């Protein structure tokens, strides 16, 4: 009898234990469903690992921009060989371009440095207006927007403030300065006439000796600044980046060093971090990777180029990074984004420094700009073009592969993709539930075969594009690709 009772107790305990385990598993399953990433109706690009759960037979591919040639020469007497640190702003139908004007080499932060201005209606053809603000070289017929404000004019970097609470007289803001004084703040109503916001520096504790950037973050709802600092790996010091934030543009947090994941440090002379204009939750950083002592140009070749003798024993290229608002850069791609061009004039020190911001220059095209032929006559700004959203794609060869996203929740009734296929290639899209099973009506078999090359294509299933039935539910997207590239997606 006692034996039977003991067995029954053990059975009860076993059943109870199994029930607890099942309950835990079920709770974990629910918890996983609750961990769905909220994409809403954001446009999402495959520039990082944020949304990617699985890649099968496909890979992320970095696309290099196309060289479109020189668009602006630094040829005014107050500009010249050492003009640098370019910012491009698209302000409605007007493109604004700011840069340091400097003819000769000298100490950073000297009075010979000034901030120059150009503008364009298409981002391709630029003019330098006679602004009449400062007398430079005996004339007010010049394109200078800030002078006699050293050391701010060493690296004056403006932005268009998208803070909905920004007042009209401060529609444009800017930072500039060097160590040890720090960065000072300027404001402007029209982007042309600038006023010092306050005498005291707003950001201190950095090296600052290159372009430092700031912007209003629509996703974080505060001002963000990325500044030049230093980092150490072992016994070696590197030019690096730190991040600081502010709610009022005056009071800033202590700068926090940026991390780069499990990759080697590079010297980052500039980082050019800014929100991508079609997906502002993603900050794109097209930085100048500086290679000190990596000499390509010989002494004899430098003499023929008439390059300053202190500026040809190093070289640089442009790299691509992203961040989503924390202190970590995603460096999925360690290779060069923009290589130095053909010609030794592109292989001198501090050439190939990217300008700040990516701007749209056509219905299917966006542009980045690069400072080239530094420290020599003919120094200029070159434009590089690429398809809209075209930084990175998920790429498949002729054999079909797939990419599956992490669990997401979206808002909207339709799915839009930016893609390209060959004549033999295709894209199909499948929706999976939280358990990874195809959702009836949205399976691969229900999906229409997509062939073509479009910036915007609405996906359909059995000729039905509506996703209303699954909007707001946790789902995964599974893209089947054959000889195709997928650049981005968005729910509308």
Would you mind describing this structure in some detail?
- The chain has helices spanning 2-34, 299-305; strands at 37-40, 44-45, 52-56, 59-62, 66-73, 84-91, 94-101, 114-120, 126-127, 144-146, 157-160, 172-176, 184-188, 195-196, 213-217, 222-233, 236-246, 256-257, 267-270, 273-276, 279-291, 315-323, 353-354, 359-360, 365-372, 380-387, 392-396, 401-405, 408-410, 415-432, 453-458, 476-491.
- It has 2 helices and 32 strands.
- It has 492 residues and is mainly beta.
- The strands form 7 sheets. Strands 2, 3, 4, 27, 28, 30, 31 and 32 form an 8-stranded antiparallel sheet that branches.
Question: Brief overview, please?
Answer:
The protein has two helices and 32 strands. The protein has helices at about 1-35, 300-305, and strands at about 35-40, 45, 50-55, 60, 65-75, 85-90, 95-100, 115-120, 125, 145, 155-160, 170-175, 185-190, 195, 215, 220-235, 235-245, 255, 265-270, 275, 280-290, 315-325, 355, 360, 365-370, 380-385, 390-395, 400-405, 410, 415-430, 455-460, 475-490.
